[in-house]
Each structure stands twice: as structure tokens, then as C-alpha cells.
Amino acid sequence: MSALDAGRVELSAEERARYARHLSLPELGLEGQERLKRASVLCVGSGGLGSSLLLYLAAAGVGRIGIVDGDRVEASNLQRQVIHGSASVGQAKTRSAAERLRDLNPYMQVVEHNTMLSSANALNILESYDLVCDGTDNFPSRYLINDACVLLAKPCIYGSVQGFEGQVSVFNLTADSPNYRDLVPQPPPPGLVPSCAAGGVLGVVPGLIGLIQATEAIKLIAGIGASLDGRVLLVDALAMRFRELTLAPSPTREPIQHLIDYQAFCGGSAAAFAPEDQVESISVLELKALMDSGDDLLLIDVRNAAEVEVAAIDGAEHVPLHTIESGEAIASIRALAEGRRVYIHCKLGGRSARAVLALAQHGIAAINVSGGIEAWSLEVDGAVPRY
User: Does 149 participate in catalysis according to the annotation?
Assistant: First the structure.
């Protein structure tokens, strides 16, 4: 990381006192702390991973930290996104996170990129930073960040979480290093890997993974220790087990020459996974009007039981998606649906669309509720919790 070797920065007396525990480490010392001060790190995402990652990079004394995020803080974020607080709900995440970092360490600079990273802006945003930390939670963003880092020759510190598990690695450290496409050569089909919203995540897990990412960033900047370059650390918090996989560049990997349409790239065989445009759908407002009119309809909730415990629409029958796709629930749904129109909802509309197609294979007509219970909470009944 030659850019970090250029020039000198002086630590003030106040900074020397603040970083005293670093300065007393022989491996880090004054030189390492000065490297941290003149370093610039971009964190894409200020959510679960980004929260602990950003806090500890700022506390460590990284001189310039960029935050890319186009979202706003929601109450359901606070279970794991600890950089934000209740007073920040509704605020731009970049602003909320930046204010917290400036309060934590006034001796560093925070740059807010209040936007979603895209193929149109990624190269311009990443270009001025020494390394990039991936704090995102979706495949299009991961491929975009990876490819932009490869094109710009920037190291990328990768992290991901799901449920009780997480992964961390360092990509693109050198020209001979593996990158994300060596770990995941092709994106999985849509719907195969549940999102955190659908599958859930233990709040401390992104914090743990983000801390490991921050540790790798500090080591790379300071030029100490052995990085996760060529290795993937697997964390199972439920069993409290850490495992390691070796990762090498694939000899058949296609060279990355430019950025592409990553949403399209990650679309995969979408037809097999029932996107909403393949099924008949209605809005939550239309559903509410039907319910208020006294229509004898059957509303089926296909989310998992834990989600139903958090929030539910009154009158909905809970039938988990997997019992529909396996055929286990078909007979009971057929009985419930006798003489009634069937409507299906989930959290956002994706799983319910899959349920509609699965029921159609058994001769049961159903209509998808677009936007799911999230839209219901936003547009119909704000008393229904969002998660």
C-alpha cells in the first residue's frame, strides 16, 4: 500500500495521549499510528457491518473515512446497527453515522456519500481512498465493489452475515490475490439465499464480523501481521466456532475490464423463482378496500413463524412458504379456499409470488399482495411493526 508510505504527518500532543495504547505496542508504535492518520478508508454501507467497522476505524485514528449509503435510519435497524440511535430514526444514515464518528474522534475527517453505489458513480467515489470495506448485504453490490476495486487496484475487505454466521476475507491485495469472483464465481439464483430481512440475523453477528473487518483494515494500513488475503474466515456464532478456508485465484476467471449492470447480472434464472411480474398482484390499499367491503377472502401469510411473532395482519392464516412448495399444506389450503378468493402476502412480495406460482401448479388460483406487510405498515396500518 505505497500510497500510505508517502509523506509524514505529525501527531499532536492530544493525539499522542488519545492513542497511547497504540503507541506502546511495538508492532504499531508511532510509525503505525502515523500511517493510520494519513490513510483513507471507504466503507460502503453504514448498517450492521458498517456500524462496528466505522466506530473502530474512527477510534483507531484513521485520518479520512468515507461512508457510502443512500438509506435512512429505521427503528428496526437499531437491533444491530449500533452506530445509530433512536434520535436518528428518519435521518440519513450517512449523516447519523458521521455525527457519531465526529463525536468519537474529532481528529479525523468524515466524508459523506449520501447515495447508493452504482456502476455510474463507483469508480469516482472509490478512486480517492486507499482501501475499501464492503459492508453491504446483497450480491449486486458485492460484485460491483469487487470489480471497481479490481479496476482501481484497491484492496477490498469483505464481510457478510446471515443468521448466526458470517464470513470475512481480504480481496485484491495484490495482482496475484483472489477476489470476490473467486469465492462466488456466479451469483446464486434470486430467492435461493434469503436476505437478512427475510431470514433474520442475530444482532451481535454483524458487529463481530465488522470488528474483524476493522482489524484487517488496521493491519493492512499499519503494515503489520498476516492478513486474510487468500483465506476466508468462517464464523459460526451459535456454536462459537471459527474455521478457515484457503482461497486462490481461479485460472479460468474472466478478466474484469469494465463495470456492468449488476442487477441484471445477479438476476440469474429469475423465471424459476417467481418474480412479482409473473403473477397477478394487487396493492395493499386494494386489499384493505376488499377487506373493508366484507369480501369473504382468504389471506395467507407465507413468512416464517418468527416473523409472524413480530408483526401480522389481522385475519391472515399463517402457512409457511416451505409447506406450500413441498406440497404439505396444499390440502388444507384447498379446504380453506373453498368458495373464496385467495390472497398471499409475505414481507416484501417475493416469497408470496413464489407461493402463488406453487399453488397454481395444484390448480389453486391466488393473487400476490405487492409490497407485503412492509407496505401494509407504511400505507395502511402504522401500528403494525416494521422489521
Answer: no
